């Protein structure tokens, strides 16, 4: 199994280090043709407008969209989640290009700027049921986005409570968000839609490997047979 990690900008080294810890080959992907030699792809966190400009410069968007359409597993973390979303909103969105495929609306900087970064315990019963361990995952949120709405084919894997003043602030449209009777409102921070996985937080910055092992199972479920070509060597 070979897992590609989009290596234009952001925390790609950290993902490759986790894959190595798990005994899986992770390779840096910077060119469209390299996607032919990986079973799945991680799009890391970083800064999504910068990443989009680099992806455009390297003419990667058509190949990334094709990869998603072929049903290959793709996991977007943070800026990677923004890349995968069909719709993005929030300050400085500026019409940046998206890969799309994930039927959701993402707010790019929902939780605020860098200094409003935080850690929080997330309830992750589905991940714990599949990967073992406690039903809680410590999420690291760095200038994090949040998912404001999802289509019917999207499975929600984690939510986080938000204060009602944030919820009510004028640039948000949170219609359809779940009401949590204990703490008011919630936004979605992890989802799966078929071959697509997306998290608003950074599992690669923790010692808890369960999101990676979950994604590796998605990759092995698709199977080695899905490797499009082995003729072009992958740079690593
Ligand atoms: N909110 C950031 C963006 O718009 C993403 C932050 C991150 O990836 N840690 O790109």
TrEMBL record:
One of its GO terms (cellular component) is cytosol. InterPro entries: Class_I_gatase-like, PdxT/SNO, PdxT/SNO_CS. One of its GO terms (biological process) is pyridoxal phosphate biosynthetic process. The keyword Lyase applies. Pfam families: SNO (PF01174). Gene3D superfamilies: 3.40.50.880. PROSITE patterns: GATASE_TYPE_1, PDXT_SNO_1, PDXT_SNO_2. Belongs to the glutaminase PdxT/SNO family. This is glutaminase. The lineage of its organism: Eukaryota, Viridiplantae, Streptophyta, Embryophyta, Tracheophyta.
